[in-house]
Design goal:
With 145 residues, the chain is of the alpha+beta class. The chain has one domain: 2-Layer Sandwich (Alpha-D-Glucose-1,6-Bisphosphate, Chain A, domain 4). The chain has helices spanning 14-22, 115-144, and strands at residues 2-10, 34-42, 46-53, 61-70, 75-82, 85-98, 101-112. The protein has a 7-stranded antiparallel sheet. A hairpin with a 3-residue loop joins strand 2 and strand 3. Helix 1 (14-22) crosses helix 2. 14% of the residues are buried.
């Protein structure tokens, strides 16, 4: 299983950044490979959602995930339910450093069912992960500045 942890500092309020990441319905507006998000169920602290992903040279794929969130702790965890992967989990932690300065800790673990897909994903993983983080940073700058 491939795993990664990134820590970044962003000059915005922790609560505002948390809300941007949790607003999954808007992902298709700024994450390049995200075509659509479909919320299947939602309650006070969790939701189940389908993310339809379109990568160049591949057919669209649907990833179904269980998303748990805690607005008092500014924590978002995602666990994979079904799709082309064997497993996937993510964790977002938002730590207030100053009024408009936040440390974001992003953890991801994933494994594809097929060996070849896993090796391809590992090859391009850094690019994909950095593009996703950059997309969230740009989104924050666009709507919070």
């Amino acid at each position: 299983m491939k795993s990664s942890e990134q820590e970044i500092i962003i000059n915005h309020r922790a609560k505002d950044l948390y809300k941007i990441v949790l607003d999954v319905e808007k992902y298709s507006e700024y994450i390049p490979w995200c075509k659509e998000i479909i919320i299947k169920s939602r309650s006070e602290n969790e939701m189940v959602a389908d993310m339809i992903v379109c990568y160049k040279y591949f057919l669209p794929q649907t990833f179904t995930s269980h998303i748990m969130f805690d607005s008092s702790k500014l924590l978002i965890n995602t666990n994979y339910i079904k799709g082309p992967l064997k497993d996937l989990s993510t964790e977002w932690i938002f730590k207030k450093l100053e009024i408009k300065k936040t440390k974001i800790i992003f953890n991801v673990k994933f494994e594809f069912r097929r060996f070849l897909h896993q090796k391809l994903a590992e090859l391009f993983f850094g690019l994909i992960e950095n593009k996703m983080i950059d997309s969230f940073k740009k989104r924050a700058d666009e709507i919070l500045d």
